[in-house]
Design goal:
mainly alpha; C8orf32 fold; Serine Threonine Protein Phosphatase 5, Tetratricopeptide repeat; two-stranded antiparallel ribbon; disordered N terminus
Amino acid sequence: MKRQLQLTWRVTALVTCSILFPTAARCASTVEVASRGRAAALAAQIRKTKLDSAVRKGSLRHYAAACLSEGVAAQGVGCLRDAVRQALPSKGRTALSERRLRSLGKASDALVLLLLAREKRLGPVPAPIADWLLGADDRLRLLVDTVSPDDNLGEVFRILGAIRLRDKDGADRFFRLALAIAVVWDQPRPPLHDQMGPVGPGKPASPVALFGYFRDLYSSNDARLAYARLSTPALVFVVDTPVPLSELKWARENVRGSASTWGRKFSEIRYDSRRLDAGQFSWPYGPYTLAAIRRRGGICADQAYYAVLTARAFGIPAMLFTGQGRRGGHGWLGFMKDAGKWEVDAGRYAVDKYATGYTVAPQTNLRMSDHDLALAYDRSLQTSRFDRAALLARLAAVCLDLERSDLALALAEQASESAPLYRAGWRVREQVLVHRDRPEELLELLDTEARVFRRFPDYMAGIRAAQAKLLRRLGRTDDAARVLRLAASRVKRKRDDLGRSLNVAQIQQAFENGDHAGALRKLERVLRDNRGEGEKVIPLVKLYLELTRTADRTHEAARFLKGYLTRMQNRYAKGWGQPVFLELLVRAYENDGDQRKAARLRKRIARD
């Protein structure tokens, strides 16, 4: 997974700094470092020393640590910017020696951390913690690779400090584990799903206690995957265990299995059909524990929860996916069966055609899909070429921040050549063209990107959507519609959800341009084409109801939906006892002002 799952926040953060806060960025380089303290003394040395020598001696890391401990990150940003700027080739020249490239990369690591500290308004960090974290190039690199703008940086440092205070040797040996715990538990953890009933599993263990549990696990033979083979982004899917330690210990004592076969844990929990028939989706049997789930059985959310939590108890990265299928929502399991190899279909019923599964990334609490994992673990991103691309892209973002767009573009292009599937290089190239106001060149770049990412429909669709947005801004609405239409036709066979999304973008564009009749005809055609997708069409029906009401075509909508929704109800929802499609038809009648038909249908729903 490496840094790809973080969506290369460092590049985004640096570009954001230079674009959103230009005044602060320029002023910072002229601010004098505080006249007293270790940071001031180190700053004076850095100004007199060539960058390569300062990097070799570790002066930049020590200076950044001093700035953190003294709470002067803003001044530190100015000093490091000046140091990097002076080491860059003169304008018009874009060649960098390998030695200079490595030195600039290490300087950029220190700069990035101070940039984030400044933007987070981070207070002073205890000097022993700052010195420890920035005491080695590899540790600093791992820190800036992992921490994101969504993290509570002060709490991350506090948790890391508490872990090291309790276990100095363990914090050094298992630094990736400590870092994963810190970036996950820097904010309160939500439950793994919202159907646990009124009595949850209990108070979660503290971050320090979790570190002790997983340190002991990975030091033993109980861990199902070796710690040495797990990256920090993978470990965040282990340590997100918002339960008491007793739950994890119960799993280690009562559950057996290998990482490669952990998907069987989903079906080991007996399905509770009576709860489904009664529409009782929340747990009704008292405390929500692993032992109770195994004893009582459960529905899909409980089966997935049991499998995910027991996997994490054994050090296996795992996630609970949810998705919308033909018969409604469902939950299933994703887990790492071997280092870097994910299984995302355990308990995912093929008959319901769940095109996409979604989970919550433990570090950011942002939604991510199972398809994100496909790109994150692509073989080309697990090589030294990826590491070089990350270095080039990071430095490109720094150069853009320093108003050296010529050098930024050259470095970003090298990053794309080194690892074409690494998004950061492409993003810097986009930002350079935006900065230079070159829309036509940006359109060509986006077209190239879409071809490079054609094996990854989510990314390709997003790139085409951005291309269409730019075309509309240029007044080329027909071209924008064509781009979306072609993209939809290429993805709909394997990814019906993306196909619908791109079709919706076309429909909304036509509607906003005043072509109400054409937009609604297109939407009716999309609804007919998706009749085989069951409840997945519900968002389309809701959009249709909204647009027909806005366009004052509610009578036509009621007539169209009467036959369409009745057939859908009979085919997909009736056997499950959920009148989801008929309730939408009630809304169509109400929109049209036909209260008599709406009331009659409500009586039918209540009777059935």
